[in-house]
Amino acid sequence: MLQQGQQFPLTIKRLGINGEGVGYFKKQVVFVPGALPGEEVVVQATNVYPTYAEGKIVHIRKRSPHRVKPRCPVYDRCGGCQLQHLDYNAQLEAKRDIVMQALERHSRLNIEALDIRPTIGMDDPWHYRNKSQFQTGVKKGRVIAGLYSMNSHELIDIDRCFIQHDATNRVTTVVKTILQDLRIPIYHERKKTGVVRTIVARVGFFTGDVQLVVVTATKELPRKELFVAEVKRRLPEVKSIAQNINGQKTSLIFGDETIVLAGEPYIQEVLGDLSFELSARAFFQLNPIQTVKLYDEVKKAAALTGQERIVDAYCGVGTIGLWLAREAKEVRGMDIIQEAIDDARQNAERHGFTNVTYAVGKAETLLPKWVKEGWKPDVIVVDPPRTGCDNALLKTILQVKPKTVVYVSCNPSSLARDIDTLAKQYRVEYIQPFDLFPHTAHVESVAKLKLK
Fold it and tell me: According to the annotation, is 342 in a ligand binding site?
């Protein structure tokens, strides 16, 4: 049995689901952040548990040919990315492998017989994120903004994040200076004093519109008029300035109340031939370039002829359903969040779709009701949260038996578990992994399932 602090040699076999290297020491699994498949490393055990251990690299004896120098100077401290030290093509291969590992571990499917396609990546895997949310703090009398270091309370100041769009980097940097110049008090997490907690910046990739939201612990924002005037002067590209109030002790960024301080209440963004209005708290995909590829794959998997009735479960603001609506007979979407449904209805109306309807509620309650009324879907698209589909929804799908299920997944483990449940009646035609978040361990997939 390994002891904490013990040093030992380890050969890394593969990457784990969080991007860490995985090896075996005397049959005990060991997770080592920063280690790459094929490397021989000397590791020090940092945490030892009954079924596994965690370690850190002391020394690399044999380096992977795919190891590269990370572009970001705070990469090893910030924790926002996990794979910058791995060559991009090797990242794409590793992500396909993560999907395969999940299927091996969480399903009884025959992996050899499955069509798991090569990961679709980006031509340029940098500066792809359209939104940043950086916590503020004060270090040596200077206002800083960034992310908390992995497993610690140390805030890492990020001057230029290499996966963020440059427009959001610029806004954050300038806003830090404005807060400093105007001496607006920065929130102190432990003392519960001060005002400004987070700087949120978002850019419309295809419109160039920029949105700034300052999250404050109090409704009162000192020198508010001056702050707005300085933002307008130094950042003329910002179309929308808002304040969100979050006085709670919580890890959630946003509170319930948002006040527009200047400009428009929202910014515009375009995906394909659809346009969207994004208010301060509206959810929108973080990588618009890859989202278009992902949605096109969903459309391809749905194989539309113009006659299909489609259900868009977990529809959010309606993006996927609207993407399919032109080539479908009818789309019905549902979500449990009222604001998302309000946005979805507005989006459909703005684009002039008359064959799309939205309802607040769970798919597992609405679907059986619609089937009873004589409305049966041909295609169900699910895009669930990380935890996967609700069991009741999987049961409902097995009862309703649509010809095609298109599963959009942001977590290979829950995808594997859910398609294992559906495999009683459905054949997995293929799984297509996507890299929506280069340099992180995150992998999205589209799985096409056909009724047997």
Answer: no
